[in-house]
Write a structure and sequence with these properties.
92 residues; alpha+beta; five-stranded antiparallel beta sheet; 1 helix
Length: 92
């Protein structure tokens, strides 16, 4: 059995990918298949979702390339956020 982050999901799987941009709430943790990264949705413009990671990396991606983040991916993002806070605190 593989780790959750190594599993791949077929596009045709029910409920795995968003069918419209309206299904994606600002603040949602989602996985971007194009960049192979998990991020938080921080805005939307038409079909493009604005994404951000705790490292302040920001990008835009079409909603159809996103899927909801798994529990493992949400934990991964939370750990990255903690690491980033600790790094920034060390620079002050």
């Amino acid at each position: 059995m593989s780790h959750p982050h190594q599993r791949t999901v077929a596009r045709g799987s029910t409920g795995q990918f968003f069918l419209s941009p309206e299904e994606i709430a600002i603040g949602s943790v989602v996985y971007d298949r194009d960049s192979d990264m998990v991020g938080v949705v921080c805005g939307a413009a038409g079909i493009l979702m604005r994404m951000e990671r705790p490292t302040h990396l920001a990008w835009e991606v079409p909603y159809a390339r996103l899927r909801p983040g798994t529990e493992w991916e949400k934990k991964q993002l939370a750990a990255l956020a903690k690491l980033q806070r600790d790094r920034e605190r060390g620079r002050s």
